[in-house]
Design brief:
Layout (H helix, E strand, L loop, with lengths): L6 H27 L5 H19 L8 H22 L6 H27 L13 H24 L9
Helix pairs in contact: 1-2, 1-4, 1-5, 2-3, 3-4, 4-5
């Protein structure tokens, strides 16, 4: 039981939140590439991405794992993204810090999706049973390359009008 829910139910909720975070993050990234702030989708993306990491910490895990490390890094990145967007209003360097940390947070969610897919999806599992085989490494490499390119483009293209506090 986690938060009074059977672990299977909690897992389904966690996965749904994670998929919503990824889908909304893709929309926000497209918005960044078009210099469109998309405040509603951005808030939803940041919220669901925080919830993905937080709910991930609630699973019964013994010892420190790569998943816990990813969650910690994600929350640090999200704290910077939230601060840059909502406290610093994307002023000065906070624009590129926000874009970089938001895109990196999305990448980490996609990275976890790739890992979990190769662990749990019956069609993918035999292709990379130890997650060191070429199909797994290729999927990770493609994702990393795509996010570096898209993140770089987003940093250069995302130049929305100044946000005013209030």
């Amino acid at each position: 039981m986690i938060l009074g829910l059977p672990i299977q139910t909690f897992t389904v909720i966690h996965v749904i939140i994670s998929l919503l975070a990824i889908a909304s993050g893709v929309l926000v990234l497209i918005g960044m590439l078009r210099s469109n702030r998309m405040p509603g989708w951005t808030a939803f993306f940041l919220l669901t991405t925080v919830l993905t990491s937080v709910t991930g910490f609630l699973f019964p895990i013994n010892g420190f794992t790569p998943a816990l490390g990813t969650g910690i890094v994600s929350l640090v990145l999200l704290a910077l993204a939230l601060y840059g967007l909502y406290s610093k209003h994307l002023s000065g360097a906070w624009r590129w810090i926000y874009v970089t940390t938001a895109v990196a947070s999305l990448y980490l969610n996609v990275l976890v999706l790739i890992v979990q897919s190769f662990q749990k999806v019956s069609v993918l599992k035999p292709l990379a049973p130890t997650q060191s085989e070429p199909p797994f490494l290729i999927a990770q490499s493609i994702a990393l390359f795509a996010f570096v390119v898209l993140g770089t483009l987003a940093v250069t293209r995302f130049r929305p009008a100044a946000i005013t506090a209030g």
